[in-house]
Amino acid sequence: MTTLPISCYIRTQDEERMIGHVLEAAAKVCSxxxxxxxxxxxxxxxxxESYGAKIIHQPWLGNGCQKRVGEQACTNDWVLDLDADEILxxxxxxxxxxxxxxxxxxTEVFSLTLVTVPPYGEVWHKTNLDPxxxxxxxxxxxxxxxxxxxxxxxxSDARVTPLSGALLHYSFKGVEHMMNKSNKGSTSRAIxxxxxxxxxxxxxxxxxxxxxxxxxxxxxxxWRQGVYGFIVAILGAFARxxxxxxxxEVHYRNEGRGTYDDQGKVRDLNAQ
Length: 272
Fold this sequence. Notes:
- By secondary structure, this protein is α/β, with parallel strands linked by helices.
- The chain is built from eight helices and nine strands.
- Helix 5 (about 175-190) runs parallel beside helix 8 (about 225-255) and helix 6 (about 200-205) packs antiparallel against helix 8 (about 225-255).
């Protein structure tokens, strides 16, 4: 099996569901596998070690910050950024190998198309497609040092080369799993993201939900996926709306209007 001078880094916490499949595919192209684990209690570490992965134990720092740890732990300059539910398909593996037949310029970035694999039905090859900058030289580009944002930010003149194939995204096991992820993600974005003006946040709470739904259902093509596509569009719109609702709570806390303190304890009501 021919591998390349590429390190793959993956953030994990209790990812035994998919991590073996992710590492098996990545090992077909990457000479180094790096796991940045934030406290798994299942078989994640055991599975990763069986694939020869280097294990970095790192308490959770935030989305982008955790990826920075992965970058720094990689011994190769070229790095592949994968989540623990993203699997390179056969075409994308061949595409990466073709791109590295001669070593690319260090300033070049390669993108892969994230393709959703739903828990029921066929792979969504024509729906909800999401190109992501995944393969890059860490001496030139780094992940954002941010608690919420974790996508590679590039200058406007950066050269991005799309690779063929799919990065299969097993993002959720069902409605409950999707809601749990959305709840966690919306909290992080609301607390750690740029705080929008309060009047704008309130306006979005009242009127933005239909637009969020339109974006998912129509623009991203979830209408093609029947009833389940409609469900996912509703949940996606609700997750975006949740960020607005939680951001309003950030404003309220900043104004000292909260009943609870930062530890979740009831404030002294007599002092209010």
